[in-house]
Amino acid sequence: MGNKSSSKAPPPSPLFEEPWRKTTCWGTKQENLKYLKNFQPQHEEVKTIRVLLHGPVGAGKSSFISSVNNILQGRMTDEVLASYTHGEKSFTKKYKTYKIKKGGPGNFYPFVFNDIMGLEDEDGRGVRVEDIKLALKGNMKDDYKFNDRSPLSDGDSGYNFSPSISDKVHVLLCIYSANASEMKSPVLQKMKEVREAASDLGIPQVAILTHIDEACVETKKTLRNIYKSKYLKKKMDDFQSSVGIPLNRIFPLKNYSYETELDSDIDDLILYALRQIIDFGDDFTVNLCLQ
Q: Residue 208: enclosing H or E segment and its boundaries?
């Protein structure tokens, strides 16, 4: 009696047949670079659009700033320190404003980034929610050293009593990793508190999903699979459900990490997200000035 050949159904594809998000980001590097180079805040009282980054430890906050700097300088740079290890403790210790050079000495783009300590799941570790709330309102001075045991108070030298409109945060940017395990409840609770505080102030909120190449094999093959990846779509859906940031304000991308040269697909994703972030912040400052 002959052996019958057994046929197994092929495994389900990790990719959708069609992209789940339609995007025009590919091949737009030069267009977006030109837009950012010519950008000026709409309101004359606003000197810079301020973007505050927050998120769990190791999500890639400092790496995102480094990546933006690389692209806008047109080369790999080392001006923003970033930790490329997946440690449990925050690499960032101070409230630091990062300006990005534009052209000759003393010239900078009219938007800045503020990096803070990462959120951790234990009380007394990582940045305190109270500190983020003060930073949102512009009450935290540059180079303030975070104290994970007590928040900034109006009696500290790092407290800014009279924040200008440019000192205040204009966009809250949440950074989280596609390659991380599910966020623990204490971290999610802290993120919700920060989000509520930003919402009370009317500050627009955007999220960035990093480490997409490490999390998805198909995206590692080519970044252009990003909006076909079932895994990344689920990761974004889960984050939206947990934190509440709308899906159309969540942007998956890859930071520069091991690369030694600029990559057009990486640049397209980062610049596409950056342009949205800056525009959201600019719209907010116009409304703020009218109040």
A: strand 205-210
Taking the complete model, does pTM exceed 0.85, yes or no? Answer: yes
Q: Is 1 within the bounds of a domain?
A: no
H helical segments located in the chain: 29-38, 61-73, 129-136, 185-201, 212-215, 217-221, 230-243, 264-290
Domain presence at residue 166: yes
Question: How many domains are contained in the chain?
Answer: 1
pLDDT, tens digit only, all 291 positions of the chain: 455 555 676 678 899 999 999 889 999 999 999 999 999 999 888 999 999 999 888 888 989 999 999 999 999 987 654 433 344 444 457 898 999 999 878 899 999 999 888 887 766 667 788 999 999 999 999 988 888 778 888 888 889 999 999 999 999 999 999 988 777 888 888 888 999 999 999 999 999 999 999 999 999 999 999 999 999 999 999 999 988 899 999 999 999 998 999 999 999 999 999 999 999 999 999 887 666
| CATH number assigned to the domain comprising residue 204 | 3.40.50.300
Q: Is position 16 within any domain? A: no
The verdict on residue 276 lying in a domain is no
